[in-house]
Amino acid sequence: MRRLLNSFAFVILASCAGEVVDIDRTGHDILQKDMFVGEWYAQWTITDVPYTTGFAFTGYGGQLDRVKWAIEKGQLIARRSYEFTEGTDAPHMRDGAEWEGAPLYAFPIRGHFDRLRGYNTTTGEQNNVISESSADCQWYECKEMRVNWAGDARLGGDFGQFYVQGFDENDPDALIVDKENNYIEVNVRAFMAPELDRELTEYYGFPVPKCWLYSNPYWDCRGQTIGVKLAFTRMPHEPDTTDADGKLVAGAVKKTFAPLEYDDRKLQRFGYYRVTRFHYDEHYGSREANRKHYARIWNLWETNFREDGSVLPMAERDPKPIVYYLNRQFPGLPEAAPGSVDLLSSAQEVADQWDGVLVKAAAQAKGVDEATLRGQIPSCADGACGDQGRMFVLCRNNPVAEDDPAVCGPAGTEIRLGDPRYSMLYWQPTPQAGSPGGFGPMRTDPVTGEIVSATSYIYGAGYERHAAYIVDLMRLLLEETDIESFENAEDLVAQLQASELRRKASPAARLSIQDIQNSHRHERILDKGRDLAEMHRSGELMAQSFDARIAPIKADASLTRGVLNRELLVQAMGGTLTGEEPDELLEQHDMFSLARRVAERNEARLKRAGTECIDFNLFTDDAVLFIAQRLLQREDLRSDGTHDWDKIRAYLLKRLFVATALHEIGHNVGLRHNFSASTDAMNYHDSYWDLKTDLGILDPEFALNDDAIRALVQQTDENGATVREYQYSSVMDYGATWYQDLQGLGKYDQAAISYAYANHVEVFDYENAERLFPADPESIVEGHNLGYAYAFMPNNYHYMVYPRLLAGLPIDAPVQNGLINGTPVAEIAGLIRQRRWVPVDANDQVVGAPAKLRVPYRFCSDEYVGGSSYCHRFDSGADVYETVRDHIARAEGYRPLAAIRRGRAGWHPQFSGGYMDRAVRVYDFLSLQYKHFVNEEFIVRRGQDCIDPSTGRPIYRRNDDGSPNLNQPIAHFVA
Questions:
Q1: Domain of residue 367, residue span
Q2: Residues 370 and 422 in one domain
Q3: pLDDT by residue (tens digit) across 879-916?
Q4: Is residue 288 part of a domain?
Q5: What is the spatial distance between Cα 208 and Cα 205, in angstroms, rounded to a whole number?
Q6: By CB count within 10 A, which of 24, 341, 400, 521 is most buried?
Q7: Among 945, 509, 568, CA closest to 706
Q8: Is residue 267 situated within a structural domain?
Q9: CA–CA distances in Å: residue 818 to residues 306, 802, 807
C-alpha cells in the first residue's frame, strides 16, 4: 500500500514539474490598432490648477471636435473629420482617395509590433515566452503599437510641451484605454509660463508678468504646472464589418439627431448659442446666403428618424432624458470636505426646476399632457416610472449606486472630470485665483449643433467667502461686531445710516423722489444738464470729444470730490505714489483716465467671457440690508431662541448655489445671456403684478408719489418676498442684487426651451388678443402690432400701459379707487397671464391661431450690452427711470463699503467689483442712458411730435398760465 502511495505521489510531482507557465514580457500600455477606426469626439480639459495660477481654472478646455485617426510610421494623428468650409476640397478628390482634415492632435509612436510567442527558428515549435516583435511585420502590417501620449500633443495649438503621469492602475490619473467602450483618457501635466499683462507689456516694450503687480501678490512668478485631460470617445455608430479581404470596415456614424437651423430672425426671439457652417458655391464662392446656423441643443429623443431615413414627427418620438452626475467631492457626499454645507437637496432643487421645464417642452412636442409624458420616459428601473419619469435626472452617487435610476448606468460606474460621455454638476471645493463664479460649457457636435454632454462648474470657495461676507456685514449693521474688524472704518455705520439704508429697506426704497429734488447737488446736476441740452441744440455737443464733454464736470471739484481718495489713487498708480504728496501733485493724476481704463478692461473681460459661458461676477452685495431682517425672523435659522449665524451662512450659501447652478445649466442647454430680462416687465413672475395691483397701482413709478413707492417696495406676498424679487423673466441675466433670481426659472426660460426644443410659442388667449395698433399716420408704431412694439420699440409705450392696451382701454385712462373705467386693475393686469401654447411651423408661423397675438419677449446678449437703454448687466428696474434710480441708490449707499480694504491681500481699486469698477459702472450707465435718450429723441424720431410714453399723447408747450398750447406741439429735433 505504501509503495502504491509513493508511486502516486511521484506521478503527481512529475506532472507539476512538467506544467508550463507563460512568461509575458510585453509592456502594459499597448494599443490595438483596430481600435482607431471611425469618427471620434476629442476634447481637452484642465483638471488641476494651483491656487497661485491666475490664468487658468478647473474645467476650462477646448471645444469638442470630430476627428479621424491616422496611423503613420512615426505619429498617431487625429485629423478633423469634416471640412471646415463645406464643398471646398472633398468634392474634388480623385476616386478612391480619402480626404484628410487639419491635424488637431499628434502623438509620437514609440513602436509598431505584434505580440507573439517565442519559437524555435529551426523547428518552428512555440515556447512559453510572449514578447513584442517588430521583426515579423512591416510597421503598417503590425496590429499593435505604443504611443508617447506626452509628446507633442498640440491640443489645437493652445498648449506646448507635456510630460505624462505614471501608469499605475491605482493612480486616479492613470491612462485609460477602454476598447470595449471605445474610450481613451490621458492625463498629462502642462508647464505654463507666468501670464503677462498685455497692456503693460505693450507699453513698456518688454514682458511684464502679472505676478509683478501689486494687485496679484499671491500669483507665483515661477512657471506653473497644471493638469490637463485628453479624452477621446468614438461617436455612436453602426456595427463594424470586414470586407472580402478581411479588412476592417468602420460602421457609419448613427444618425439620430436632426439639426435645428437657427437664423438671425429666430435669434432675435430667443438667444441660443449656435454652430455656424460655411458652404462654398463653385460659381459664387462663400456667401452669406450659404452660411448655416444651427442651434446648440440636446437631443431629447431616442431617434429623430425612421429606418428609411425619413424624419419622425415629434409626436411619434420616444423621449430620452438628460442625465447629470455629481462629482465625488460634492458637498453632502462621503468624499466632500469636512464641515462643508450639505448641498444635495439644493442640487435636487435645481434638477427639479429644469426637469419641469423640459417635461413641459417634451409634452408640447408630443401633444400630450405632462403626466402622460412622464409615463413614457425610460428613467426608472424596468421603465416602471408611472407618472414619475423625469427629463432631467440627477444621479446623486458617484460611483453609481444600486438604488440610482437605471439611466445612471451600472452600479460602480465612476464619473470623472473631463469625460465627454457624461454631464456633471461639479462643485470645485479648492480656491483658484483665476476661477470665475460659474462656468457652463456644453460639448457640442461642431457639424450638427447637438449637445453631446455638458458640465456646470460651481467654484465653491468664492461662494463660501461671499456667504461669510454677507453674514459679517449683517452683524456689522446690527452692531453685533465692532467696526474695528471692518478695517478700522469708524465712520462706516454713520455713512450707512446717513444714506438711509440701515436694516429695514432696500436702497431703492429709501431714496425718495423728494430727497433727490431737494438736494443742492441735484440742482447743480440739473444745471449741467441744461447746459448739455443747449450744447446739443446748437450742435456743439456732437462735435466735441469725450475729454471736451467732461471738461465742465472735471472743472467742478464739488462734483468729483470724494470719488477718488488718496488711498485709491496710490493703489491705482501701482505704488508709485505714497499718498503724502501735495494735493497739486495728486490732482495731476486724472481719475477719469484711470476709470476709463478700468471700465474698458472689465467690459472687454465680461464680453469675452460671455461668449464662452464664463460667469465672473454674478452677484453684488447690495441686497444685504433689505433681507437681513427677514432672515433673522425665520424659525429654521434660529437656535435657542435667537438667530444662528452659522445657519444663516449655510442658508445663504445654498441660495447662492441654486441661483448659480440654474444659470449655468441654462448655458448647458444652449441658452445665451439675456441682459434684457430685468426690464421684460410683461414676462415678470406673476407675483410682480399681483403685488402691484393689490395696492391698486397700474401707473408708472415716476408718476407715483414717494409714499406710494415706499409702500410698493415694502409690500410682501405670502412668502415674504417683495415686488423687486420678482422683477426678472430669466435666470440668464446678471441681476443687480444677489437675490434677484432666487424665485427660480422665469417665463423666458420656459419659452426659450419650448421654442427651440418643441416648436411651440405662447399667444395671448382672450377675446381681443388679436388686436393690432391702428394704421394711423400719426401712430408711433404704424403697421406694427403690440408684440413688435414691446419687443423692439420699448421706448414708445411705457410698460405699465400694456395691460390697458391688451384690455382695449385708453392708455391714459386713470386709476380711480383701484378701477379703470369700472374694471378692477387686477383683472386688467391679469390679461398678461392669459396665455396658451401653440405650435409654429418651419417658417416660424403660428399654427392654428394665426389671429392671436404672440407673446413678445425681450432678448439682448453680451455683444450688445449698452447698445440700448434696455440692455445692461447688473441693473434692476423695468424702465429707464427705475434703473437709473436704482443705480443712484446703490452708488450712494455702498460707496463706503467699496472704498475700504477690509484686509484683502493685494486690494486694488481696479479689481472687478472694487471701488473704481463700481464707480465707473454707475457713471457709465447714467451716461449711456443719456446717450440713448439723445439718440431716441433727436435722431430716431426726428421731426415727430414728442410723445408721453405713459399716455401715448403729444406733449404740448405751455402757455404763460401753465395750460397746454394745443396749437404748438413740441417737435423733435430737426437738423
A1: 296-429
A2: yes
A3: 999 999 888 877 776 665 666 665 555 555 555 556 67
A4: no
A5: 9
A6: 341
A7: 509
A8: no
A9: 58, 17, 16
Give the pLDDT of residue 899.
Answer: 61
Q: Cell digits for 130? A: 510572449
According to DSSP, residue 888 is labeled H
The answer to whether residue 44 sits within a structural domain is yes
* Sequence-separated (6 or more) residues with CB below 8 Å from residue 765: 834, 835, 836, 852
**Domain boundary pick from 377, 402, 429:** 429
**CA 861 remoteness from chain centre:** 11
Contacts 24+ apart (CB under 8 A), 954-958: none
| Side-chain half-sphere exposure of 230, counting CA atoms within 13 A | 28
Q: Which of 429, 451, 486 is the last residue of a domain?
A: 429
Q: 970: which DSSP letter?
A: P
Separation CA 211–CA 376 (nearest Å): 56
pLDDT computed for residue 502 by the predictor? 32
| Beta bridge mates, 178 | 183
In tens, the pLDDT along 250-302 reads 999 999 999 999 999 999 999 999 999 988 888 888 887 889 999 999 999 99
Residues 314 and 226 in one domain: no
* Residues 757, 266: Cα–Cα separation, whole Å: 13
Q: What is the pLDDT of residue 896?
A: 57
Residues 168 and 312 in one domain: no
Look at residue 505 in the predicted model and tell me its pLDDT. Answer: 34
Q: Do 98 and 232 have their domain in common?
A: yes
Are residues 207 and 339 part of one domain? no
Q: Tell me how far apart the alpha carbons of residues 124 and 104 are, in angstroms, rounded to a whole number.
A: 45
309 and 195 fall within a common domain: no
Q: What is the CA radius of gyration of the chain?
A: 33
The pLDDT assigned to 538 comes to: 46
Q: Are 791 and 674 in contact (CB under 8 A)?
A: no
pLDDT of residue 202: 85
Contact 379, 293 (CB under 8 A): no
Q: Is the dihedral of CA 696, 700, 704, 708 positive or negative?
A: positive
**Residue 378 domain-assigned (yes or no):** yes
The C-alpha atoms of residue 616 and residue 492 are separated, in whole angstroms, by 28
Domains: count for the chain: 3
| pLDDT score for 651 | 95
Which parts of the chain register pLDDT below 70?
Answer: 1-19, 96, 151-170, 214-215, 379-387, 477-479, 481-626, 768-785, 849-851, 893-915, 917, 952, 969-975
DSSP string, 451-505: EEEEEEEEEHHHHHHHHHHHHHHHHHHTTSS-GGGGTT-TTHHHHHHHTT-SSSS
Q: Is 613 helix (H, G, I), strand (E, B) or coil?
A: coil
- At 924 the pLDDT is 86
Residues in contact with 223: Cβ distance below 8 Å, sequence separation at least 6, in sequence order: 191, 192, 193, 194
- Name which of 464, 897, 861, 443 is nearest 654 in CA terms: 464
| 242 and 310 part of one domain | no
Nearest to 669, CA basis, from 735, 747, 749: 749
Q: Assess whether 314 and 239 both reside in one domain.
A: no
What angle, 0 to 180 degrees and rounded to 10, lies between the N-to-C axes of helices 344-366 and 645-668? 30
Whether 375 and 384 have beta carbons less than 8 Å apart is answered as no
